[in-house]
Amino acid sequence: MAVETERIPARRRRLGDRLAVLGERDFGWFFTGYTTSLLGSSMAPVAVAFAVLDGGGTGTDLGWVMAARILPVVLVLLAGGVIADRFGSRRVMLGSDVLRGLVQAVFAALLAAGRAPVWAMVALVAVWGIGEGLFMPAFGAIVPGLVRREELLADANTLLGLSRSVATVAGPAAAGLVTAVWGPAAVLLVDAVTYGVGALALAGLRLRPPSSERAAAGVESESMLDELRSGWKEFGSRPWLWITTVQMGLFNLLVWAPFLVLGPLTAQAGLGGARAWGLVMGVYGVGAVLGGLLMLGRRPERPLAVATVAALGWAAPSAALAAGVSLPWVVAGALVAGIGSAVCGTLYTTTMQRWVPAEALGRVTSFGALGSFVLGPLGLAAAGPAAGRFGTDTVLWLGAGWQLAAAAVVLAVPSVSGRRWDEGGAEPAPEAGAEADPAPEPVG
Asked: Percent of the chain beyond pLDDT 90?
């Protein structure tokens, strides 16, 4: 049943109204812990990289360590969604924070003792990646339960997105300073402490037990495979959901991965090298912060349509690099992309949380995250060879053109362009034997 909410035009909402979600007890508590742990998490990759290199490791060793963190995330995502729906997001996130905090504490101790060979680093970051893979679906599912007033859900996601954007800018900078003065071990110790703060915040939440939600939904005890199948049914029965997931997956393959690989090469060749590329990525982070501030207190009438239009911004920096324009234009493109990323991410996340049943949200989130990111590593690996075969400019132009074409196709889907805030809450899953939009077949 739709929840009636007071409609306040975004342009007339005061700052206090836009920050009202912080007055929600559980959300305010969670926001503090999450922001603290996020800052530590954004510092850690810098420390890990220098830990490998300072210990005599090679570029190949660093690649192994980086891959050891990413691969477990992908492998654990789907199981993480099932576990979050079965045992509750808070418990899963609490366990994940404790696990990752212990990993970082052990890592810091080994570095401080001078006993951190590459194989040990690989093992530790792999466990760290498992924790992240469990955390991500649970995080997507917990937010609606933290906000009592539905009209504040978008503001909650906006503030969480702002935290991520600020941490992306501030974390690496702080890590560089701490690493230079005290070494990588100090950064990892700080990260371990911030995970502890996040765990304490999660322990203080007062959420309804997951068993009551499952009982209310009439969900009987199922095997993990059965729950994955039912989660896939929830995911695939909503065209707006799986179509936008496919869009994001191909974006990471064709647009963002080539930009991240070929951008530094282009900057090195003609824009000013590492300093210029650092400026581009720094301004991208600033744009994400500005986009979050822009979204605070606003609920567009057609959220998915606005999100899809905002995603067009990601074409700007790739097109600027491909066109060979001067650095200020590339920086301006990165600013546009950063703003678009914040708007797009907030609206997609809020739409999923609003229209997917709470008892399936962890599994649906895991399918969405897997579909969005699984092709990213392939794009990173293929960008260099593709540029060598077809030319850097061609690959970047292809990405920019794809982003424009994909947005046009997605906007032509009625369930995307026509979805409105006032359509009501979560959609029920199709009943057995009922007609439903066909779900996409799983790959592989």
From this structure: 20
CB proximity list for 120: less than 8 A, separation 6 or greater: 110
Q: Which of these, 215, 169, 165, 237, lies nearest to 358 by C-alpha position? A: 215
CA atoms of 218 and 206, how far apart (whole Å): 23
Cα 152 to Cα 21: distance, rounded to the nearest angstrom: 6
Q: Are 133 and 80 in contact (CB under 8 A)?
A: yes
Contact call for residues 158 and 296 (beta carbons, < 8 A): yes
CATH code 1.20.1250.20 region(s) in the chain: 17-216, 224-422
| 217 DSSP 8-state letter | T
CATH 1.20.1250.20 fits 224-422, yes or no: yes
The hierarchical CATH code for the domain 17-216 is 1.20.1250.20
pLDDT per residue as tens digits for the range 337-355? 999 988 888 888 888 877 8
Encoded tokens for 401 = 């053109």
Q: Angle at Cα 365 formed by Cα 361 and Cα 366, nearest 5°?
A: 120
CA 194 – CA 300 distance, rounded (Å) = 35
